[in-house]
Write the structure tokens for this entry.
Amino acid sequence: MSHDAAGLPEGIVGHHFSSLARQNEAMVLGMWLFLATEILLFAGLFVGYSVYRYQFPLAFAEGSRHLNLTAGTLNTVVLITSSFTVAMAIHFARTDRRIAAAVCLAITILFALAFLGIKAVEYTEHFHEHALPGKFYAFEKVMIPGAAMFYTLYFLMTGLHGLHVIAGMSVLSWILWRTLQGRYSSRYHTGIELGGLYWHLVDLVWIFLYPLLYLI
Amino acid sequence: MSESGPSGQASAVLHPGDEQEKPEHSAIPYVVVWIALLFFTVLTYLTGKQHLGQWALPIAMAIACTKSALVALIFMHLKDSSGMPRLVFVTALAFLGLLMFFTVGDVATRFRPATPAGAPFGTERSQPEGLLEHETPE
């Protein structure tokens, strides 16, 4: 890869930016605006959850106690640790330790796979118990009004979150590739930072989903 | 416009950490936050399992908010960022708060004359009256 006089990969700074610092600022702000829309996307589900939990407190408590708390807790630890490894990847990238950064990103992607694997085990359990959303709900252990709403919201919230895990995993894989190419360094590391921001948001959402779904 | 132009200088002032003569970037805050997050996860697990009645939700939400603040400030670098990303984040949270407050506030303050016939809103939400006919309350 060719580098310019300042040691940056060619074509990094857009011609419409006066400096790299300005471009970095714009990129980070743009990412945060996107994350704000993501927060509002999840906000709809969290508000829907609150309304139905207010109306059916017993059904939500009862439904929650039939979820796999061990799996939920394990997934919380997995996601928190993956957030840590992605933060370390960015740290290594900005201190010019490319291989360490790549290893941290690879570990993060493995944690994401582990999260999805544990979630798949849970979904399989629900499927066998007929604890399914909406009109498909036929879970014999919790047959009180509102129980179907709990499981509907559970599937919508964890499902949307799961899609974000898959998206984040794809973004991190791409960034891992770019890291191995040597795109990120102490001079330029905004790309890897933006990918990290997205992954942290996935973690943030789960931090609220865990107590609201598993620990009522 | 060159890098030495007025705007280039302005952003250099805004981002002292992005300049070349910065101190070595430290990983210690990340390790500390990771351990703190694991601690709070254990805490929310233990308190959640107690089913502390009306205190369960406030405690769980307080712990979740603390964990989120750590992630946003340290992992997502809001602590060291300029004002704009912070403003965007806080604005998103403010709109989440508005949506939550007025929607739940609406549902929670309904009374029978304001509720369609047969709907489980307002004063009718309290269970076990909400149980199906063939269910016997414990």
In short: The first helix of chain A runs from residue 20 to 55.
